[in-house]
Design brief:
The chain is an alpha+beta fold. Helix content is 31%, strand content 22%. The chain has 5 helices and 7 strands. The strands form 3 sheets. The chain has a 3-stranded antiparallel beta sheet with strand order 2-3-4, covered by helices on one side. Strands 1-5 form a two-stranded antiparallel ribbon. A two-stranded antiparallel sheet has the order 6-7. The radius of gyration is 18 Å and the shape is globular.
C-alpha cells in the first residue's frame, strides 16, 4: 500500500520554513498556507486509516477528550487523532515545552542550528514507516518510500 501510494503521489515542496513556538514548544512550520501539503496529509490519513488499530479507552483519555474542541473530538473518534484535516497544522517539533526564561536561549540555538535549512525550499519527497516494538520503545525505521513515479527500468 505504501509503495502504491508513494508512486502515485507527487513531491510537495515547502518554499520556506520558519521557527515558531507552538503551545510552548519550538517547531519548524511553513511560512504560509500550503494547500498541497494539507492535501498530502489528508490523503495519508484517509489512505492508511484501514491499517490503524482501534483506540483503547486509555488512549482516548490520554488525549484529554474533555479539553478538545468538537471537531478535534470527532477526529479523535473517527481517525484516531484529533489534529487531522481542518485541525491539522504541519510542524516538525524541535523541543519540549520551554519556559519563558529558557525560550530566548533555545530560540537562538535553534536559529543558529537551522539557519541553512531556513534559507532554501524543503521537499517532502518520501514517506517513512516507523514501528514501535512496544509502547514507549524507540521508533525504528521499517521502510522508506520515495514519492513520485520512477522511470521504468530497461531490461535486456
Amino acid at each position: 500500500a505504501l509503495d502504491d501510494f508513494a508512486e502515485t503521489t507527487p513531491v510537495v515542496t515547502i518554499p520556506r520554513l520558519v521557527v515558531s513556538q507552538i503551545d510552548g514548544f519550538f517547531a519548524l512550520v511553513p511560512e504560509g498556507p500550503l494547500p498541497a501539503l494539507n492535501r498530502f496529509a489528508d490523503d495519508v490519513v484517509r489512505d492508511f486509516d484501514r491499517f490503524r488499530a482501534p483506540l483503547s479507552e486509555a488512549e482516548i483519555e490520554r488525549r484529554s477528550p474533555d479539553s478538545l474542541k468538537p471537531a478535534e473530538f470527532r477526529n479523535l473518534c473517527q481517525w484516531g487523532y484529533p489534529y487531522v484535516f481542518e485541525t491539522f497544522r504541519f510542524h516538525m517539533t524541535l523541543s519540549g515545552r520551554a519556559s519563558s526564561q529558557e525560550s530566548p536561549r533555545l530560540r537562538a540555538a535553534i536559529d543558529s542550528l537551522f539557519a541553512g535549512v531556513l534559507q532554501r525550499p524543503v521537499p517532502v519527497d518520501a514517506l517513512t514507516l516507523f514501528v514501535e516494538t512496544e509502547p514507549g520503545a524507540p521508533f525504528m525505521v521499517l521502510s522508506h518510500h520515495a514519492l513520485g513515479r520512477r522511470p521504468a527500468r530497461k531490461s535486456a
